[in-house]
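Pilot study result, target chain (668 residues):
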Amino acid sequence: MRLRAGMGAMTFMGLGLLLVASGVTAAELQEPQSGKPEDKGRWTHYGGDAGGSRFATAEQIAPDNVSDLIPAWTYRSGDVSHGEKGRRKSKFEATPILFEGRLYFSTPFSRVIALDPASGAELWTFDPEIDLEEHYSESLVTRGVAAWRDPQAQADAGCAVRIFFASQDARLHALDAASGRPCPGFASGGPVDLKQGVGKVEIGEYEVTSPPTVSGPVVVVGSAQGDNRRVEVEWGTVRAYDLRSGRLRWSFNPVPKRPGDPGWDAWEPDSARRTGAANAWSTFAADPERGLVFIPTGSAAPDFYGGERPGDNRYANSIVALRAEDGSLAWHFQVVHHDLWDYDIAAQPLLTTLQREGKTVPVVVANTKMGHVFVLHRESGKPVWPVEERSVPSSGVEGEKASPTQPFPSLPWLHDELKSPNDVFALSDEDRQACLKMIEGFRYEGRFTPPSLQGSIFWPGNVGGVNWGGAAVDPAQGIMVTNVNQLAFLVTLIPREDYRRRAQQARRERLSLQFTAQEGTPYGMSRRPFLAPSGVPCTPPPWGKTVALDLNQGKILWEIPSGFVKDLAQHPKAREFGSPTLGGPMITASGLVFVSGGKDERLHALDLSSGRQLWSAPLPGGGQATPMSYLHEGRQYIVIAAGGHEGLGTTLSDHLVAFALPEDDNQP
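Predicted structure:
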């Protein structure tokens, strides 16, 4: 499950706390091609390609000329909310795609826009007219779209190329890429209502925020849900619809609901019937050659107490590989057993190949909120880098039975250790004393310290290590780059009979605590990020970093603080502190890493081999998105959504910004 807006995303330095029936042939399983010479510089999927590599093959922009980059064009959608008119604030997290010569992206208001890639001129817009005043649990946000060319249609026929998009209010749309009009043959000309068939839906709490995935004969879509409300929330069903007709082709529920469903034998029958969520809210990856789609799932409901869902909760917190043709289970790998920490798999699975014992091995890489990196064989799900089960702390909470072990990969931990929470970081004695007082009596036993009645310190917290920004990989070198958040959270379970009183007292005293009921369990919950009164994290910096990992050698090549906090810019060590980041990196074939996402509101270019910064430019708003790149008419562009993020407290705006080399520099 995704962080509810205002539940765990944080701001600091005076910004306060926010408590986040048609057949398709085998030939159609291949990657879409434009047939143009500049196809080498394409970016046809949200993650660059179907496998989410975030790798740009264009090489015009290189380490020796990246310092010459200039703004090429800016497009403003007008879709930004500062909290006025009863609306939630907006988050611009989208990454455009370039498909057959046009850019397509979605806005925080769930509009889809097509642009000319050379000028940024608007070609068309589509507005599904969602209710902007609905209290969506995810604020106002969407991340992107998917595209598909119908090989059976005439090239210039209507809807020969389709843009698939799920609006935040959980409706799946198929649009004509040429005009932006809904395709008349898809779902009888209207969108598919995704709120049907997933149990009882609470409006505003069941949404779609990530782009759908085209895989084989179907378009596959998951859901985002408001966390921790109760046991019996909406189901986390993943569904696939026919690309032409919009007919439901198959569905997969990570929590089985009846005998015969996958995983039924691993659940207690009553628990399985009642438990919701385990939903897949992030972006999926697809392997067209093998006919597989890879689903990253989240925790079963609720996140912080599992007594009503005993066992490992199979298929929750897992990479689930499904056959695109019929939705049957190929394999699964669970990264967290019986989740008690909101450790959803937030990052898109990353498909690449590794060299092992002289052989090329197809793998899927699972980056996690714990900062663990699991590398699995794409066909079997078996670990390519070894994984061992290690003992972890037990719960001690009545009714709870935490898993006695958790899987630990042999690859280096991307997250820093926290030897003792009493070794707090502070910029003043007042902050230091406040930090120490805040955790008096709290429990901390390292990774996987379970929630407790006295309060527990979560390190990593539920917005760290690798979040929805995911990772990028250079497939030739096997070098993966990702952003890692390093923020601790404080979580306390509250007995049901005391929950209302504690919540009301906190409101009266204006304590910076977020409460959720976890109805259907004996305990409510309160949590907060571990911040000093000044808003500075109590844990040592960097609070965010960018890390390069050699997947072939199994070693970290370099790591640097990611960005900086604007409010601390005058501090002599501001660049060492880094910044919490929301957004991902992109790698280019010329050996560059482009990354943003921090509170400094800048786009950075790094040397892939060393992490050294080669270029940086200010953005008109927070760059809480993943950049993309494409080659068009002989010119390479770097594009990023710079519209800010209400949860991180960066400048809200509506800018989509493109950078390129001066046109004279592009001449042979």
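One observation from the pilot: The radius of gyration is 23 Å. A full batch analysis is planned for the follow-on phase.
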